[in-house]
């Protein structure tokens, strides 16, 4: 469930490379928070990344 509902940022995949150049799979997960927001006058809770939360792309419910 590591996906932002605002910007659709989700898991990225790549390789972990050791000193001897052996490669294994790894992943980078976004920093997802569950917050309550105000959307068209109603409050609802969504999963949002900290980047969107910090840049005020939604208004938080108090």
Automatic annotation (TrEMBL):
GO terms for cellular component: ribonucleoprotein complex; ribosome. GO terms for biological process: translation. Pfam families: Ribosomal_L28 (PF00830). Keywords: Ribonucleoprotein, Ribosomal protein. One of its GO terms (molecular function) is structural constituent of ribosome. Belongs to the bacterial ribosomal protein bL28 family. HAMAP family: Ribosomal_bL28. This is Large ribosomal subunit protein bL28. It comes from Pseudobacteroides cellulosolvens ATCC 35603 = DSM 2933. The gene is rpmB.
